[in-house]
UniProtKB/TrEMBL annotation:
Domain Alpha-D-phosphohexomutase alpha/beta/alpha: 7-136, 157-256, 266-371
Cell division in keyword set: no
Keywords: Isomerase, Magnesium, Metal-binding, Phosphoprotein
Family recorded in the similarity comment: Belongs to the phosphohexose mutase family.
Signal peptide: none
Cofactor: Mg(2+)
Pfam families (UniProt xref): PGM_PMM_I, PGM_PMM_II, PGM_PMM_III, PGM_PMM_IV
Domain Alpha-D-phosphohexomutase C-terminal: 376-450
Top-rank lineage group of the source organism: Bacteria
Protein's name in the database: Phosphomannomutase/phosphoglucomutase
Presence of the UniProt keyword S-adenosyl-L-methionine in the record: no
Length: 454
């Protein structure tokens, strides 16, 4: 009987419970299918610290080699370290991780040579079809000359590449608390930070895919409480939190207050524009703050607004030749990193900006964080379309108000905006609200939620 992959093959990756939904046998078939669809002669494979990751990654490598591809196994790595390997070696890559999901989950993030994304429209649907076929009929016979497996440690080279992209020469000494959440930040941060004038205070650096302290998902406020307290206790200059596969980075200022990823996007955009002579395109998704396009224009750049999701950001970066892109979920994309996302490089920009002047981080970021935002609020609804229609009916036709449907429903006025998007996988509506002052934001937030939840 063919495997049913409908529950684990998502829009941009593979993700599911091991071994209930997938296992090493299927991982081997995924490796073979990946080579067949990409036509790769060589690939790179890496994995995170989850208990199931080494076995799944090796099975994938064996499946790929059986189809004739030479496999470079880079072992333990962050997702952006796998992108580095794909970019610098110019080969397709596969990263075994379930990012911030619980320990029983695992997954595969795949890319073509140069870290170009593989999603439903760029090869993932074909890979799924082959795996389903082969799970029933059996994998095709190995090729006459199978590929080889070699190991390669890319951590030092990855760190050197990132450090070459940020001028840290004028940086003053800083005290930095880093919460790795028992994820891959505990593997990468010590090497990347080794040459910096930083007193590093590590939290949860032990690699442990069972996540004994908290979920490795800093987007949820409860998972940065420990970091916030430690920053205050240490009198640190800032705190950094990485998710499980360390491709996203969240920032806490010296007061223990979480920094909006939109403010980080604006700060890094200004720095990347300066590095490129005050010219360039910067991509931002439609739920980032008004601050982002304002700062981009003020620094000579051209802002481009996109839908939420890394595939849209990467596609628009490639189309426009953008130098940088940012999402409110704390994904940061760099032209000089093959248009791929790397939270570590964004963190280095924050350190360089803070260390290059004397004011504390809260003061430095004030000019990049200009409005009152709600953060993302999820509501469980019986009918997403009906709830969205009710909100649209309430705001359509109001004076000085515009509506657009680039991604869900966005309603904008002179003093505020909100976006309402349906989840693709759950019966949820996601609301983001921003206004020029806090009282306006709160009233708008409550009015829209009342419409959604009636």
């Amino acid at each position: 009987m063919a495997a049913d992959l409908s529950q684990i093959v998502k829009a941009y990756d593979v993700r599911g419970v091991v071994p209930d939904q997938w296992d090493e046998h299927l991982a081997e078939l995924f490796g073979a299918a990946f080579v067949q669809v990409t036509g790769a002669e060589s690939i790179a494979v890496g994995h995170d610290m989850r208990p199931s990751s080494p076995g799944l990654a090796r099975a994938f490598a064996l499946g790929a080699a059986a189809r004739g591809a030479d496999v470079t196994e880079i072992g333990l790595c962050s997702t952006d370290q796998l992108y580095y390997a794909s970019g610098t070696l110019d080969v397709p890559g596969a990263m075994f991780t379930a990012s911030h999901n619980p320990a029983q989950y695992n997954g595969i993030k795949m890319c073509r040579a140069g870290a170009a994304p593989v999603g439903q429209d760029t090869g993932l649907a074909e890979i799924r079809a082959l795996v389903e076929e082969w799970s029933q009929a059996g994998a095709p016979a190995p090729v006459d000359t199978p590929g080889t497996l070699v190991s390669r440690d890319t951590l030092q080279d990855y760190a050197a590449h990132l450090l070459s992209l940020v001028d840290l020469s004028a940086m003053r000494p800083l005290k930095v608390v880093v919460d790795a959440g028992n994820g891959m930040g505990g593997h990468t941060v010590p090497t990347v930070f080794a040459a910096l004038p930083v007193t590093l205070v590590p939290m949860y650096f032990e690699l442990d895919g069972t996540f004994p302290h908290h979920e490795a998902n800093p987007l949820d406020p409860k998972n940065i409480v420990d970091l916030q307290a430690r920053v205050l206790a240490e009198g640190a200059d800032l705190g950094l939190a990485f998710d499980g596969d360390a491709d996203r980075c969240f920032v806490v200022d010296e007061k223990g207050v979480g920094v909006s990823p939109s403010a980080v996007t604006a700060l890094v955009a200004a720095r990347e524009l300066a590095r490129n002579g005050g010219r360039g395109t910067v991509i931002h998704n439609l739920i980032t703050s008004w601050s982002v396009p304002e700062v981009v224009r003020e620094h000579g750049g051209t802002p481009v607004r996109t839908r939420v999701g890394h595939s849209f950001i990467k596609q628009e970066m490639a189309t426009t030749g953008a130098i940088f892109g940012g999402e409110h979920s704390a994904h940061y994309y760099f032209k000089d990193f093959w248009n791929a996302d790397t939270g570590m490089l964004a963190a280095l920009h924050v350190l360089a900006a803070l260390g290059g002047q004397e004011t504390p981080l809260s003061a430095l970021l004030a000019s990049y964080d200009r409005y009152a935002g709600s953060g993302e609020i999820n509501s469980t609804v019986a009918d997403q379309a009906a709830s969205t229609a009710a909100v649209q009916a309430a705001y359509a036709g109001l004076p000085d108000t515009t509506l657009d449907h680039l991604d869900g429903l966005t309603v904008s006025s002179t003093d505020w905006w909100f976006n309402l998007r349906a989840s693709n996988t759950e019966p949820l509506l996601r609301l983001n609200v921003e206004a020029r002052d806090d009282s306006t934001m709160r009233k708008l937030r409550d009015d829209v939620l009342a419409l959604i939840r009636t």
